[in-house]
Design goal:
Layout: E1 3-6, E2 17-20, E3 29-33, H1 38-58, E4 62-67, E5 70-76, H2 82-87, H3 98-108, E6 117-121, H4 127-134, E7 138-143, H5 148-155, E8 163-167, E9 176-181, E10 184-189, H6 212-226, E11 232-237, E12 240-246, H7 251-267, H8 271-274, H9 284-296, H10 319-326, E13 332-336, H11 344-350, E14 354-359, H12 366-375, E15 379-382
Parallel strand pairs: 6-7, 7-8, 13-14, 14-15
Antiparallel strand pairs: 1-2, 3-8, 4-5, 4-6, 9-10, 11-12, 11-13
Helix pairs in contact: 1-6, 3-4, 4-5, 7-11
Length: 390
């Protein structure tokens, strides 16, 4: 198929809309089910590039959860602990493949933001992944293939209207890309810069102890940022993005936003949160909202609102509880798509357990940023590579 007509563009008034290949060749994607729209395909094509590169760089299955052309989360397919399964609402006894683990962890980054996401899988979608996706509110999925069982499961989602897209894994895009804005055509080279361990040799802090696990987390952070609307920063732990801040005009605001998301992720593991007893039959989105409000909105337990979602009133998660728990968080990596202009970003990162930082460098205040990292015995790498994405 050389082109695909779409219902409309970003908004219903933007017609006609289509996707097509400028050179008249066939599209590298096939719609197996549903009717994906303009934004769906923007998410699909950006998220596919992310997971494809992440697998190539780490050798592990990778997944992403996309919303509005930025990842809400991304992760590689490391096994889930029993507590992970509880936090991410995995059905008891469910057998999980590596690609299923990757998507569950990617969605687990920020489950509130992943509501109605576009899922991307680096590997063939199997039944385990499809079964988990079936229980989530999601707009669609892109993968290089689907097992017959997975396809049957996904086709039953959203009353048969779930968007399922298959992409040719061998497809490579042209070296030049074009974009029209207000009738003016922009041209640039495709961002094919390879991200890998060789980028992390310029360690600028006194502490040079960079473990292999942090190298992997730096790869996850930078590849995630490569497909996140700028300005952007990404907190990563154990191969999983735990906080993504996108599209902020101020770098410190981006660091704070992503840090708040990382803190909420960490607090989902707090014993008081794990002890919440939900009413029978509650849907996953309602559980997510309940957990988020319990963690971030002290007024949630005032009045009777909690009774709609919980069997019993839980103890308050106090500011002291949160501070004590977050103080135990360690081993977090922070990546930034451009240099940190001030040390305040490092100060905020420290509050979320950051021990490793990777950024391009190049600020006139690099010395102050490095000094702040040294104050906390962090390891900081300068890559010399900016990753703006618009």
């Amino acid at each position: 198929m050389t082109e695909l007509e779409l219902k409309y563009g970003c908004n219903p008034n933007q017609k006609p809309a289509r996707i097509f290949m400028r050179d008249g060749s066939d599209l590298p994607v096939t719609v197996l089910n549903g009717k994906p729209g303009y934004i769906n395909f923007l998410d699909a094509l950006n998220s596919w590039q992310l997971v494809k590169e992440l697998k190539e760089a780490t050798g592990l299955p990778a997944a992403a959860s996309f919303k509005h052309v930025s990842p809400a989360g991304a992760a590689v397919g490391k096994p889930l602990t029993d507590v992970d399964r509880q936090v991410y609402f995995v059905e008891p006894g469910a057998e999980l493949s590596p690609i299923a683990c990757a998507y569950i962890r990617a969605r687990g980054t920020d489950r509130m933001s992943s509501y109605g996401d576009w899922a991307a899988l680096s590997d063939e979608c199997d039944a385990a992944t499809a079964l988990y996706l079936k229980g989530e509110v999601s707009d669609g999925v892109i993968a290089p293939g689907y097992t017959p069982e997975a396809l049957e499961i996904l086709k039953s989602k959203k009353k048969g209207g779930y968007n399922i897209v298959q992409i040719d894994p061998a497809y490579t895009c042209p070296t030049q890309e074009y974009k029209d804005v207000f009738g003016v055509t922009f041209q640039q080279g495709h961002n094919d810069y390879k991200i890998g361990p060789a980028l992390f040799t310029n360690i600028v802090t006194a502490n040079h102890d960079l473990p292999e696990s942090a190298v992997t987390d730096m790869i996850v952070a930078l590849i995630t940022l490569k497909y996140t609307q700028s300005n952007s920063v990404c907190y990563v732990k154990d191969g999983q993005a735990i906080g993504v801040g996108a599209g902020q005009q101020s770098r410190i605001h981006c660091t704070r936003l992503a840090g708040q998301k990382a803190d909420t992720w960490s607090l989902r593991y707090h014993p008081k949160v794990l002890a919440l007893r939900f009413v029978d039959g509650i849907r996953r989105p309602d559980r997510d909202n309940t957990v988020d409000q319990y963690i971030n909105e002290p007024s949630f337990l005032e009045g009777d609102l909690w009774k709609e979602y919980l069997k019993e009133k839980p103890p308050v998660l106090t500011a002291e509880d949160k501070a004590e728990w977050l103080a135990k968080t360690t081993g977090v990596t922070l990546g930034s798509d451009a240099f940190f202009p001030f040390g305040d970003n490092v100060e905020r990162a420290k509050l979320s357990g950051v021990e490793f930082i990777v950024e391009p460098g190049g600020s006139i205040r690099d010395d102050h940023v490095i000094m702040t990292a040294d104050k906390y015995n962090m390891v900081m790498c300068f890559t010399g590579m900016r990753l703006f994405h618009h």
